[in-house]
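Fold this: YfhL family 4Fe-4S dicluster ferredoxin
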Amino acid sequence: MALLITDECINCDVCEPECPNDAIYLGTEIYEIDPARCTECVGHHDEPQCKVVCPVECIELHPEFHETHEQLMVKYRKLTAPA
């Protein structure tokens, strides 16, 4: 699954630099996560780093993007493959 930042986000800027896939960006009002780039840190870390550092716990599973660990690993490999 990709992750989703809820509207409880306080724009503290701590999650964006922690994302190894550059999936987090500042949207029009709050930070957002690109589901095409989010692997929940599979391939990089044991747990999603954005969730680890979020002081208000506003990051949750995205209800529209259900992916297995294997699918997230495939996405990770595509994102990290040499160009």
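The mean pLDDT is 96. The two ends are 25 Å apart (CA to CA).
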